[in-house]
Amino acid sequence: MSFAAFPLWAVLAMAGAAAVAIVAVYLLRRTPRPQVVSNVEFWMRAMQSAKPKLLASWRIPLIAMLISLLAALAMVALIGDPRFGSGVRGTTVVVLDAGRTMDAVGVDGERRLDRALLELRRWVERTTITGEVAVVRAGMRPSVLLPITDDAADLQRALTGLALDDGPSDLPAAIALADTILAEHGALEAGVGQILVVADEAVEVATRAPTVVLPVGTAAHTVAITSFSARRVPEAVGEYAVRCEMSAFTAGRARARVVIRDGDVTILDERVEIAPHTSEVLEAGGFSSARAELVAELTDIELASGEDGFEGDDRAYAVVDALEATRVLLVSDGDRYLEAALAAHPGLDVDVMAPAAIAGTSTADLARYHALVLDGATLPSGVAHGAQLIFAPPARGAIAVGDTLSRPRITATLATHAALDGLRLDATRVTRATALVAEPSDQVLVRSGGHALGIARQLPRGRVVVFGFGTADTDLVRDEAFPLLVHSSLRWVADRAEATPLARRVGGPLVADSGHAVRDPEGETITSGVVPEVARAGIWHVGDRAVAFSSVDHASSLGAGATGGRFAARSTWPPLALMIAGALVALLLLEWALLHRGRLE
Fold first, then answer.
1. How many CB atoms lie within 10 A of CB 589?
2. H/E stretch holding 250
3. Which homologous superfamily is 222-323 in?
4. Cα(118)–Cα(113) distance, rounded to whole angstroms?
């Protein structure tokens, strides 16, 4: 036992002074004084004294004095701040692992973080007897949790609000920070600095100060979501599909419910069974929403090999962005078939312009449109656009044309091309068409013998699809295949496949544009608008845009490895000051009971 507040000689001196004071008070109280009593009262007291008692009246004051003496000595000991052990000299920097796996519960039922905090408190209690201590939090980005101090009470204030990151800890960087703290404090030059790493994994880092690893935790079984994503379905406007992969890091089979929610609405609820050390993939589609903020969660987990020891890998996040309309300019004299085909697509924002008006436009004027549909029209000289769908091109346009064909018979279609997307036009009748002059790099979509009636051209900075007939020259417009032809061709020339906004990895930055606010998953606003390193998984918001951060990439087995050991110097006793305080309370209660025994009777 050692005393942190005072040296041993000072504590002994205070104890001696307290003992002298207690004995002096006892002697003063026991000094006899003459007292006049009546004859009846005298014999009443004599009768009471003659009764057999466990404690004679003359012994009780002596016992009370001894109890008071013990209570005073206990108070002196508390003033001296007693600690177990002889203390650790010098400066110790403790590196506390705050990674995601520290939330795991081993087969022994103990959470790794709880064991780490227990060992941390005991080590700080011992270290601050004769030395100093600092604590470095080893999260995804290391930080100083407790500056160098010699007061053990500072630790509890520093641990207030301690939270784990949703990603792995950067232990090498945290140990390097601890080494730097010791060097700047001068402990390395004096040879009295050391580093203690409290973590659930083995780590080897070259340091100038002696380093000791205190392992915590035991092996744990877990079922994890290892992949979760959502994407738009190109074939169905406004719909999206989800894909969720689950893995079992267990010794036996695992069962669980997979629940996927869009906000407060459950869109999928299924049970899965996973063999040990394998994965299962769940795919579903047909969900319709303008935008979605999705949360996948594993619930009702049943393991044949025990309990699920880690809840941090049971949730994953994904978002589906709102559809952005494709802006299309239709240059036509009023073709009702083209207008109807474009109006049938809910994802198009269509403007109509007469062919005569196109002559007064420039490249900059047309840049706001994702695609142009030209019906018997052509762009003026010097004007360009990277996405064009042309019907019945004029003879003096940018597309070279050949002879005019009367009632050509379609003999071949390139149905595998994305501009046709499986459509076959073999039965389509064409009354009149213009043969197109195909370049060597063109792909012929529709052919009539040796003549090209439809081509797809890849330009250095764009794409063009051309059909050598108009809507008035074919019966294709009366078939449902015509809107599909227009939509597939526009999708290819505009090259605007819906991006799949995959969830970002926890640990990446999040920066808002000027004028936009950043909100965390709880809705709290980040005033700076910049999060250098996102350490929490969930749905974040930048203005009106949702951004998913997920930790599924970090899901793995939770084996023991270096985590199965115990610190040899650990103590199973509670803090010594707490034990002395409890004894002091018991002594005071006992003294009160002795001095007031008559009232108790």
1. 11
2. none
3. CalX-beta domain (2.60.40.2030)
4. 9
Give the span between the Cα atoms of 571 and 74, in whole angstroms: 22
Q: What is the 3-state secondary structure (H, E, C) of 132-175?
A: EEEEEEECCCCEEEEEEECCCHHHHHHCCCCCCCCCCCCHHHHH
> What CATH superfamily classification does 91-218 receive?
von Willebrand factor, type A domain (3.40.50.410)
- By the 10 Å C-beta count (0-12 exposed, 13-18 middle, 19+ buried), 313 is classed as buried
What Cα–Cα distance (Å) separates residue 157 from each residue in 42, 121, 145, 198, 384?
63, 12, 10, 19, 67
**pTM for the model:** 0.61
CATH number of 326-494: 3.40.50.880
Amino acid at 274: I
* Domain coordinates in residue numbering, the chain: 2-83+584-600, 91-218, 222-323, 326-494, 504-549
pLDDT tens, 133-187? 899 999 999 999 999 988 878 888 888 888 999 988 999 999 999 999 998 888 7
User: 91-218 with 326-494: one CATH topology?
Assistant: yes
Are 472 and 485 spatial neighbours (Cβ–Cβ below 8 Å)?
Answer: no
Contact 164, 98 (CB under 8 A): yes
